[in-house]
Amino acid sequence: MAGSDADVIDALVGITPGSALDAIRARRPEARAQAQATYHALFAPEAPSNVTAQERFAVGAFVAGLHGATAIAAAYAARLGESGASAALTEAVDAAVKEAKTHGPYGSYPAGPLSREDTAGPLYRVGAVTRRTLGPRLAPAFEHAHMLVFHPRDAAPPSLRALLDAGWSTTDIVTLSQIVAFLSFQIRVVIGLRTLAGRP
Amino acid sequence: MTETVLTPPQHTVPTAFTRAQLDWLPWLEPLAVEALTPRHLASFVDAARAKSPYFRLLARDPDALEARTRTDKDIFYNPDAGLPRAERELAAAATSRFNGCLYCASVHARHAATYSKREADVQRLLDAGVTADLGERWNAIVAASVALTATPSAFGPEHVERLRGAGLDDLAISDVIHAAAFFNWANRLMLSLGEPAATPGP
């Protein structure tokens, strides 16, 4: 993830030109180029936005950490550092990952025949010490991201209200949701292709 | 009044997975049709999507929406070899079933049934869930999609071997990976920005 032009998925999988995976990705050229374009739109946007680079990479490092994807999380943490984040913030992201990590997907369905599939799991609330460093905008963003990562079927308006109350605009929430959702894709493509290449 | 959570109108909440057409009601304010700029319109890729509140909400970040849509289209519609369309849709439906996205599951179960002509098997996936017995090739695709959808991922070499054993080449396996991964993206947007509603019968 050095430059914003290098293909992030290729870099994280370790795809070299001329390799078997290079040929497979070349058969779906738009998927490859547009996954990279999404990364660019969400982590190096050209249009002005209220969501700072530091917020984007902090959420990125948190989400990758929650997935237990160590190398990917390290890459996003490195970009967080480059975005000017303090060491305290980087440490708070690590602390939040340790507080929040669990197994998904779990959650509840609307009452009815699917209720027998309801699976209990934690509702993450950022710890007091971590919250102080994350600040009033990132703390609810991390709580929302945790729900999206582990129990998205529990999503409900109160979580969006908490973000609005913390100063995230409707447009900012769309961007935040895209960051978490896109990473849920990117991380799985990387894990899947690494496994396909025999190096999980 | 865009900085507020919307209360959807009175509607029937679907309580089971279905192949029937569902509506989707936003919890946040989509852009108004009359407020769409040429940049927003281009981000839909398909002009008809300007009618959809879901896409008009995502159009608030048009660069992300456009790249998302173009990624989606190549993963599911690229006809060059690999996994047949029906089975890309199966992976999308299985992922949505496992994450619990009734809206996404309804759309992609419909597509899987249409392209495979195996309505009963698709319905069994919706009714019984991701452990339903759909025959070895479909079981292998569903199991791989589910393993990749778990957080942390449970996808391993055994899933690749099972897919190879079921007759998938590496391009087809890459298509399973991309289809399941893409629905981990789509499910999270659909589930968290609004809710499904049953449409009134004819």
How would you describe the shape of chain A?
Answer: globular
Largest interface: A-B, 73 and 68 residues
Instruction: Sketch the topology of chain B as an H/E string, one letter per element.
Output: EHHHHHHHHHE
Name of the CATH first level of the domain at 83-190 in chain B: Mainly Alpha
CATH fold naming of the domain at 51-184 in chain A: AhpD-like
Treating each run of at least 4 consecutive H or I residues as one helix, how many helices of chain B?
9
Oligomer: heterodimer
| Helix content, binned percent of chain A | 55-70%
How would you describe the overall organization of this protein?
The complex is a heterodimer of chains A (200) and B (202). Chain A has 200 residues and is an all-alpha fold. Chain A has a domain at 51-184: AhpD-like (Up-down Bundle). Chain A contains nine helices and no strands. Chain A has helices spanning 8-13, 20-26, 29-43, 53-66, 70-82, 87-100, 128-150, 157-165, 170-196. In chain A, 51% of the residues are buried. The model of chain A has no long low-confidence stretch (mean pLDDT 96). Chain B is mainly α and 202 residues long. The two termini of chain B are 35 Å apart. A two-stranded antiparallel ribbon of chain B has the order 1-2. Chain B has nine helices and two strands. Chain B has a domain at 83-190: AhpD-like (Up-down Bundle). Chains A and B meet through α2, α3, α7, α8 and α9 of A and α3, α8 and α9 of B.
